[in-house]
Amino acid sequence: MSGYSDWPMRAVARKLGAPYTICEVMIDSFVRSLKDRAKTRHHLLVTDDDHPVGAQLMGAEPDEFPPAARKLVEAGFDVIDINFGCPAKKASGRCRGGYHLGQPEVAIEIVRRVRDAVAAEIPITLKMRRGLDNSQQSRDNFFRIIESAFDLGVAAVTVHGRTVEQKYVGPSHWAFLKEVRQKFPHRTLLGSGDLFTAADCVRMLRETGVNGVTAARGSIGNPWIFSQAAALLCGEPMPQPPTVHEQRDVICEHFRMAEQILPSDQVSKQLRKFCIHYSAWHPAADTVRTAFIAVKNADDWHQVIGWYYADEQPGQYPTDPGNSGHAQEIACA
Questions:
Q1: 156-160 and 21-22 as β-strands: parallel, antiparallel, unpaired?
Q2: Do 291 and 154 lie in a common domain?
Q3: Residues 6 or more apart from 88 whose CB is under 8 A from it?
Q4: Nearest to 134 by CA among 158, 97, 106, 166
Q5: Is 0.70 topped by the overall pTM?
Q6: What tens digit of pLDDT does each residue of 187-226 get?
Q7: Does the residue 326 lie in any domain?
Q8: Can you give the residue range of the structural domain that contains 293?
Q9: How far apart are CA 57 and CA 332, in angstroms?
Q10: Considering Cα of 294, then 297, then 300, then 301, what sign does the dihedral take?
Q11: Would you call 23 a catalytic residue per the annotation?
Q12: Looking at 23, 86, 201, 275, which residue is catalytic?
């Protein structure tokens, strides 16, 4: 998720039960140009507690992918995840991401080049949407790409149930995930789309038969989704929502980790995006959300924490977990 799935978000998610995380999507040419500078070093940051972690790679030309993939492996990423799903205009308008679903020959060549570029023990995975649009040609292209990818040795594929044309409008078609599962019963398939609660994650697993699910937008400001889903899968009741102090502890830890990797003037700006989502768990959600939106610097941020998170209270489950307010701009997934 561009602009979100950085090291602090991944570290918080891992601490609260995520078994595997993937970094924010990176353009191949950007990865190749990265130097060991304080300002950009965090893009390739992998810590001992981060494993297993995947690097998400997107680009236009097959030639650009191999050197970028090798650089990401050298940085310590365990998996290379090729993004053929991003619907953002900046991606598709430049022949990247979901655009490749319309040119299967290029997509397949990218997979081949990346698989050949890194050691055999490094898994290669794909992220795909179900097509550019609802046409039969898009459907045929999808199955041609995914079948060829598995033949080339791809370890797993994440399928998002929307088309590129849909972006994040309208429902994700989970029935398509079930169809893909039936066509590839012995392959590792993950599902994506409309996973905003632990119950959503469990329902997708049971309705579609996929091997796992990826909580993308649904995990922003909601790192508790992982432990909650694990509890449900074990037959346990849904855990109580985190209390206000539990929320505060996670938010403050997120802030402290962001301070370790970002310039001081960028930390509150980055955390504001997350805290708008974190606020949904607070019993005064609307008020706290408005307060976070108004944050302009670290002092403002600390004042909001000190004012609204000082008294211990029960938390609440978000009343509308799927409404991010800016869903179409959040994720390349």
A1: unpaired
A2: no
A3: 2, 97, 167, 329, 332
A4: 166
A5: yes
A6: 999 999 999 999 999 999 999 999 999 998 999 999 999 9
A7: no
A8: 244-308
A9: 11
A10: positive
A11: no
A12: 86
